[in-house]
């Protein structure tokens, strides 16, 4: 199978959505699906689904559809989810606390292995299955555990300095909950989760 590493970002962003739908289909006992059935599940046109998948090679056969299990396997391979990725969470406020208690990461390819904060009143406290560690040890922890992914849930004024620490340790993928754009090297990928920005975007469509 040929994988094109420079598929459009918007296409790559839809692959986890397809994977989630396929997981639900498999849980419902389905073994074969089609682009039209996926489209009906997701509200995306079947032509768009076929076009998205075509960036990564051939999937299924005309008239026979897709094997649900095989398509899941292929998508996990494309997304590099055929291994488990360790993740650190920095910032144990409300958002970080919720992330630390969330149990859905492991079944989707990720495992939180450490949580951090710089507040002395939180360091050493137990949150869910974790003991909060001091951010002073963040760089060494990331290096020791070969961590590439991090979730950043610190106040905006601290986000850049913490991101710099993560990158120094070797992190190359940051999910940022702080309402600020980070300045990072070209090899580092940042995704932003800003509920207010999403609400503002949706408000545009309200008549």
Strand and helix map with partners:
Elements: H1 9-27, E1 32-33, H2 35-42, H3 46-54, E2 66-67, H4 68-78, E3 85-90, H5 94-101, E4 110-117, E5 126-127, E6 130-131, E7 133-134, H6 138-144, E8 149-152, H7 156-169, E9 173-176, E10 189-192, H8 195-203
Parallel strand pairs: 3-4, 3-8, 4-7, 8-9, 9-10
Antiparallel strand pairs: 1-2, 5-6
Please give a structural write-up.
There is one protein chain. This protein has 207 residues and is of the alpha/beta class. It has two domains: 70 residues, Winged helix-like DNA-binding domain superfamily/Winged helix DNA-binding domain (Arc Repressor Mutant, subunit A, Orthogonal Bundle), CATH 1.10.10; 113 residues, Rossmann fold, CATH 3.40.50.720. Helix content is 41%, strand content 17%. The strands form three sheets. It has a six-stranded parallel beta sheet, with helices on both faces. The chain has a two-stranded antiparallel sheet with strand order 1-2. Strands 5-6 form a two-stranded antiparallel ribbon. A hairpin with a 2-residue loop joins strand 5 and strand 6. The longest helix is centred in the first third of the chain and has 19 residues. The protein is elongated. The model has no long low-confidence stretch (mean pLDDT 92).
């Amino acid at each position: 199978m040929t994988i094109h590493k420079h598929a459009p970002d918007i296409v790559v962003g839809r692959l986890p959505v397809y994977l989630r739908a396929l997981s639900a289909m498999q849980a419902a006992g389905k073994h074969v699906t089609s682009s039209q059935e996926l489209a009906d599940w997701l509200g995306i046109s079947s032509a768009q689904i076929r076009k998205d998948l075509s960036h990564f090679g051939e999937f299924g056969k005309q008239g026979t559809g897709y094997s649900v299990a095989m398509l899941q396997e292929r998508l996990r391979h494309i997304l590099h989810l055929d291994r488990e990725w360790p993740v650190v969470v920095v910032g144990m406020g409300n958002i970080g606390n919720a992330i630390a208690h969330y149990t859905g990461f492991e079944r989707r390819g990720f495992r939180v292995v450490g949580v951090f904060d710089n507040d002395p009143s939180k360091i050493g406290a137990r949150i869910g299955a974790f003991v909060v560690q001091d951010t002073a040890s963040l760089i060494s922890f990331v290096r020791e555990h070969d961590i590439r992914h991090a979730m950043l849930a610190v106040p905006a004024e601290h986000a850049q300095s913490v991101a710099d620490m993560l990158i120094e340790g070797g992190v190359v993928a940051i999910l940022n909950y702080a309402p600020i754009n980070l300045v990072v090297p070209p090899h580092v990928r940042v995704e932003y989760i800003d509920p207010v920005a999403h609400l503002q975007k949706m408000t545009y469509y309200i008549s």
